[in-house]
Amino acid sequence: MKYKIIMAALFFCFFVSQAFAADNFLKGYQVGDWKADFGIEERFRWEYQTDFDYNQAAEDDGNLFFNRLRLNAKFSLEKSIEVFVEGLDARVANFQRKKNTQLDDLDLHQAYINLNKLFDSGVSLKLGRQELQYGKGRIVASPTWANLINAFDAAVIKYREGAWSADALLGYVVKYDDNNPNHINDEEQLNGVYLGYQKDKKSPLFEVYDLNLIDNNKKSTGHIHRYTIGARVKADLWDGAVMDVELPYQFGEYGTKDIKAYALHADLTQSFDAMFKPKLTLEFNLASGDDDANDNDSETFVPLYQSTHAPYGIMDFFRWQNMREIAASASITPAKKLQLTAGVNYFWLDSTRDIWYSSLGSTIKTATTSDVDSFVGTEVSLIGKYDLTKEIQLEAGYAHFYAGGYVKDRGAHDDADWCYAQTTIKF
User: Which of 273, 375, 399, 420 could make an S-S bridge to 47, C-beta 3.0–4.6 Å?
Assistant: First the structure.
């Protein structure tokens, strides 16, 4: 029944968007001095996976169908006040695979007021339930790949003046509850500052941050206070070449242990002025793991509320936590509305005595004290994106994971496959 509802919603949005897109009928209503805009986003995705436990003998292959509907309204008074409200409905239909947690009946996703240029200055204030995204989203983000999107009940003071930008924030993550209204966990607090400097769009971008997670909700480990300080630089090197480097360090308390963890990201992207607009990216990622679970130090880097899915491959086998990665990708645009991207990712664990974490932070393989290879495997992938219209985007992808020495040393070591097809309608 749910699957039929999903398909009905998909086709409804498709035909409505085609009928009214030309008139842009949801935008620009004027009520006195206020302007009202309404938005709808409907996304449907099919996924198929095989041998995600690296064991062909186990019956774990199968399909998943995801559907997410976002409805929003924005009311603005010139450029001084903005009120935004958004609901999100997430559905999952299972076939052969175990129950998925990426579902939530229609619920409040965002509801905030944004007060711009307070006292005719560069200061603004954003209050309420909102998405947060800083830098490239490696530490704090609201990634949209999964059905459920990170939201925070937060207060953010923003300063924008010339080349300088600064955010000071205090918030609590919103917990999804399929059976009740979504609510905050007041024992899990995020606070900090994020500073940036960029003279103009062609100049280097410099960012520094101090983002702190206070978590009193971990009954097994006790109080957690994780300070994350870091810096990021993005700059043009030569014609068509851009580098991006980020280096965070974490310290604080994890129960009775002292946090001492670090990470590094570096990439270089070269765009070519040639047919099909080719682009090549080389990337390195490192996130420390804990080499001794019995000492007084916690050395596992934890990316707080990081982006999921990309950029650590597309099969969601890794995140910026106890990992090392070397990756390369190449993209072309053979037609105006079509982009193709091929990638290869090589993965190691930073410490084989720590857990192998998935993109969501769950455990793929538990920690071991055995002498095992650190090379986990290689992922190859191909993604295609096509803009059917301004409102409709089609996307499909395939990835194969070649199991490495670490997987072999831990037992079954069959390769894994994953593919998907997705339609997004937004207007």
Answer: 420
